[in-house]
Amino acid sequence: SGSSAAAPLPEEDCMKLNPSFLGIALSSLLAIDLWASKRLGVCAGEDSAWGSARPLMKVIEVSGHAIPWLLGTFCGFCQSDSSAAREVLLNLLFALLLDLLLVTALKGLVKRRRPTHNKMDMFFTISVDQYSFPSGHASRATLVCRFVLRHLVLAVPLRVLVVLWALIVSLSRVMLGRHNMTDVLFGLLLGYTTYSVVEYCWLSPLSAPALFALW
After folding, report:
1. What sign results for the dihedral spanned by CA atoms 118, 119, 123, 125?
2. Is 139 within 8 Å of 170 (Cβ atoms)?
3. Is 107 part of any domain?
4. Is residue 2 scored above 70 in pLDDT?
5. The domain containing residue 151 runs over which residues?
6. What is the pTM of this model?
């Protein structure tokens, strides 16, 4: 009847009609992230703006992949006859494994799909690689960059090249259409933090004598 009061909207409908400021801000940031990531995906396909640079970007992609770094570090550790070098390489191996574990866990937890313009032609992928958040390449590149700058004595030009390599590897993730910008930014933060954890838990003959006794 006309005199009867209108039924109140369900709580969830009220939330949809009156979104919070935080919800609006997050939605806007997500939209900007998706838009900018697509615009920067200039090597996402052969017909893209910079499609001719795609093979070079894929070489850079491989240079930041986990498998070459894990195998190279493990082989260097096994062949090294210096106790100091073995200590550094063992901690680098520990750092790479920790980084891989954290990235895999976060990807499985967040389950953010890769950009729609991504071509799934990556080098040696596993099931969790269908997800994009965070970028494992960006995290690994940042981790390795900090590790190398801290534990290797390099001339200034080489130190600059190491930093440039980490930045280019991270940028290639968006250019190839593998990741969105926020995936890469969080990956950089994760790699930086992971290195700090490794430094705090540094493995040495004093802190882990049983481990070093194996060699």
Report:
1. positive
2. no
3. yes
4. no
5. 50-213
6. 0.84
